[in-house]
Structures are given as structure tokens and as C-alpha cells.
Specification:
This protein is an alpha/beta fold. The chain is 47% helix and 14% strand. Bound molecules: NADP nicotinamide-adenine-dinucleotide phosphate.
Length: 255
């Protein structure tokens, strides 16, 4: 099926990362022109931009001015900006129960996930208001759906993204773009730089125990779901939805 993305301009945040990089490749293969956002991973973003004929743009998305500048820069480089994929995020690896969780880590996690996503959406929605059309795909997590002991900060931030933020924006975007859509993917455990250090054999056995499809996702498993949601040909009547890509995961093995 032709997703109708040929010639469309898409900004992918976190394109220097595993999932954002895979999203970039899939969109480029569908003929989209991509602005690849990075924070610290300039080399990775520039290498991939060279490969797919895109442009690499840096920003710390926790910083209001940098997030605000990213969207016009992407629109200018691509000539048009039809969609925005908000994949940038941080999962703090250390397992810390809430009783011992510092306010500093709580704030840092919320800022790097929820606030960064808010700032990305705000900047992009200003562009949508100018051009009258647009599409957003957020990246949540199964942590936001099932919780994640030892990572309540991350789970709460992701739940806010795929809950209150998504559901509010689905009704706001149409005020400025009658066919504007916003959806989210909620990946389960996925092979990327974020998880390479924790996905040993025992952990993989535990996390796949509640999944009928017993494997850790690849970044391209997530990317094809994102591409579908970006496509107004394939998903033109789909908005406010969370597409979970986690092999049918039913929850956690607690003991
Ligand atoms: N991997 C998983 O198992 C998994 C599961 C569920 C959900 N997710 C979500 O999927 C998304 C992508 O994760 P991934 O697996 O691709 O991880 P990754 O490879 O670590 O990529 C994370 C991306 O976020 C960017 N980023 C981090 N802090 C930032 C900041 N302050 N400002 C701007 N960008 C920032 C990074 O930029 P630089 O590298 O350039 O600094 C990188 O591009 C995240 O939202 C993550 O929470 C991942």
C-alpha cells in the first residue's frame, strides 16, 4: 500500500536514537523528506541525514527557546512540514522505588519526557496553525500503560503523554487544522541504545513472559507503526489513539 508520504516533510525528534533513526529510515523509504533532530548525538544524526538525504538539526528539547527554534528551522530546510514524530525521551536505568526517589531525578525525568514532548508539540502546533494542516505521532511506553516498578517517574511521564496530553491535543489540533490528527505509539521493550545494557537473557525471559509474541521489539517494529500513523492515506480517520507495539504484552511478571 502506498502510504502517500512521497514528498511530505517530517520532523523526527530523537532521530539520533534507535527508534527515531528507524522511523527516519522508514519515512525516507516511503519518499518523505526528513529533518532529523538530535541532542548530543550530532554524528549519528548527520551520518543518517547523509544516507537518507535529510537535514540534521540540534536542540535540547527541555529548553523552551531551542524547541521553539527547531520547528521553523525544519520547515525552512524541508520547504514544508506535514508531520512531527516526537520520539526524544530518556529512561533512567537505575531501579529506584518512590520512597527513595530524589526530587531531582523525578524532575529530570519529567522534564526530559513530558516537558520536552509538550514543548515539541507546542512549537509544532504553532506551525500547524499557520499552514492549516498537520499530524503528530507521540512516543509513549508500555511503562505508561502498565506502570514500571523502580521507574515511577518515567511511567508517570509517559502515561501523561499518552493520556491527558494526547487526548487534549486531539481536540485542540482540529481548531486550527480541520483534518489534523495526533496519535501515539507505546513501544514495549525495544532494542536500542536505551536498553542494550539491561537486556540480558534473564531479563528478556522475564519481560517476554507476558507476551504471546516472545521477543524484544526491533526499532523497525516501532517505526512501521509510526509510519502508518503519519499517513493520512492509511490512518486518515484515526486520531487520539495509542497503538501499543509490544507483542501483545499483558503486563508484568512481579515475582
Ligand atoms: N527502547 C525501549 O525499550 C523503549 C520502550 C518504550 C518507549 N521508548 C521510548 O522511545 C523513544 C526513543 O527511545 P530509543 O529507544 O530510541 O532511545 P535512544 O536510542 O536512547 O534515543 C533517545 C533519543 O532521545 C534524544 N534525547 C534525549 N534527551 C534529549 C533532550 N534533552 N533533548 C532532545 N533530545 C533528547 C536523544 O538524543 P541524543 O542521543 O542526540 O542526545 C536520542 O535521540 C523514547 O521516548 C523512549 O522513552 C523506548
Amino acid at each position: 500500500m502506498d502510504l502517500g508520504l512521497q514528498g511530505q516533510g517530517v520532523l523526527v525528534t530523537g532521530a539520533s536514537g534507535g527508534i527515531g533513526g528507524a522511523v527516519t529510515r522508514v519515512l525516507a523509504a516511503e519518499g518523505a523528506r526528513v529533518a532529523l533532530h538530535y541532542h548530543r548525538g550530532r554524528d549519528a544524526a548527520e551520518a543518517l541525514a547523509g544516507e537518507v538525504g535529510g537535514v540534521a538539526l540540534g536542540a535540547d528539547l527541555r529548553a523552551e527557546a531551542e524547541a521553539d527554534a527547531l520547528v521553523p528551522a525544519a520547515a525552512e530546510h524541508l520547504g514544508r512540514l506535514d508531520a512531527c514524530v516526537a520520539s526524544a525521551g530518556v529512561w533512567p536505568a537505575e531501579d529506584v522505588p518512590v520512597g527513595e526517589l530524589s526530587l531531582e531525578r523525578w524532575r529530570a525525568t519529567v522534564e526530559a519526557n513530558l516537558t520536552a514532548t509538550f514543548l515539541t508539540c507546542r512549537a509544532y502546533l504553532r506551525h500547524v496553525a499557520r499552514v492549516g494542516h498537520g499530524c503528530i505521532v507521540l512516543v509513549g511506553s508500555t511503562a505508561g500503560l502498565f506502570g514500571e516498578a523502580g521507574h515511577a517517574d518515567y511511567a508517570a511521564a509517559k502515561a501523561a503523554i499518552t493520556g491527558g496530553l494526547l487526548l487534549s491535543l486531539k481536540n485542540e489540533i482540529v481548531r486550527v487544522a480541520p483534518l489534523g490528527r495526533i496519535n501515539a505509539v507505546a513501544p514495549g521493550w525495544t532494542s536500542s541504545a536505551m536498553t542494550t545494557d539491561v537486556l540480558d537473557e534473564v531479563t528478556v525471559g522475564r519481560i517476554t513472559a507476558t507476551m504471546p509474541l516472545r521477543k524484544v521489539a526491533t526499532a523497525s517494529d516501532i517505526a512501521s507503526a509510526v509510519a502508518y500513523l503519519c499517513s493520512s492515506t492509511a490512518a486518515g480517520h484515526v486520531t487520539g489513539q495509542v497503538l501499543t507495539v509490544a507483542g501483545g504484552m499483558e503486563g508484568r511478571v512481579l515475582r
